Amino acid sequence: MGAHWKREKVQDHKFDFINVDDFIDNSCWRQFRYMLVFLVIIRGILVYCSDIFTAVNLWTNTNPNSFTKPTDGELDLGIGGIKLSMIVYKYLFTGCIVLGLLLLALDIRRASGIIASRDISYAFTSQIAARYYTVRSYPHYCFFAEIDNSKKFVDNVAFFVFFTFRNWKRLLLADAPRQLINMTMLYQAFKGHLDRTFFRWNDYIGHELLKQIALGAMMFTVTVFIFNMLSFIAAVCMYIPLVSHIQGNLKEYCCYKIDKR
């Protein structure tokens, strides 16, 4: 016997028939969360800027990873004596960044079609479309926040898993290969200082600004990747029990819940 939500007919809704001004919430908490949206967007832009800066630094610097001291044109990954050619690392790193930008371009293209359709459920489930409406006006953010304001644990889990899985291609294909290498390189760079009570950044990295920025950018993107990967692992663990409970397609379930609200 299928889930009851599949048999229930819910009308699709469009922004043409909704007055988002009716959902405005001027509470301090709602406005604070609205500001956080811009911080998340800025973080995303900084990640792309860091990636592009690191890629340019790799190809313009004869010794781009001097803080890991590569020898004979190879990087020692510190895993069973495995070494990676510097030229392979350059192409791998740059290729992952290009792939990430291509995936972003495809997402923007899909989001453009969703925005043109003015469909509410599709806009809510598209990260780029939702942020477009959110940045466009505070009432749109309040409207989306009202949709997301569910007191049901299952619905919260469903939305978390759905939105986490939306970025699996970028996470596993564009981010994981280069960030795993970056993590081993950072470990080598700092392993000699892990037992110290205080770490003097300039004493080890030096006073060269470009070198400091390169290492800082690498640490920033690795930190973001670790957080995203932990979220993805949590979503994977929740997926099978969730699908067993809703007895249907996750995207259809999320769109149904959005239209119903």
Plain-language structure description:
The structure is a single chain. This protein is mostly helical and 261 residues long. It has one domain (4-260). The protein has 11 helices and 2 strands. The protein has helices spanning 4-7, 28-60, 86-117, 120-125, 127-136, 138-148, 153-165, 168-190, 201-205, 209-246, 250-260, and strands at residues 74-76, 83-85. The protein has a two-stranded antiparallel ribbon. Strand 1 and strand 2 (83-85) form a beta hairpin. Helix 5 (127-136) crosses helix 6. The longest helix has 38 residues, at 209-246. The mean pLDDT is 80. Keywords: Membrane, Transmembrane, Transmembrane helix. InterPro entries: Kch1/2 (IPR031606).
Jot down its keywords.
membrane, Kch1/2, elongated, 2 strands
Total number of β-strand segments? Answer: 2
Shape: elongated
* Poorly predicted runs: none
Strand fraction equals under 5%
- Structural class, from helix and strand content? mainly alpha
Tally of separate helices: 11
Order of helices and strands: HHEEHHHHHHHHH
Q: Could you estimate the helical fraction of the residues in percent?
A: over 70%
User: What value does the average pLDDT take?
Assistant: 80
Count of all domains:
1
Q: Report the C-alpha radius of gyration, rounded.
A: 22 Å
Provide the spatial order of strands within the biggest beta sheet: 1-2
CA-to-CA gap between the ends?
A: 25 Å
Largest sheet: 2 strands, antiparallel
Keywords: Membrane, Transmembrane, Transmembrane helix
GO molecular function, one term: potassium ion transmembrane transporter activity
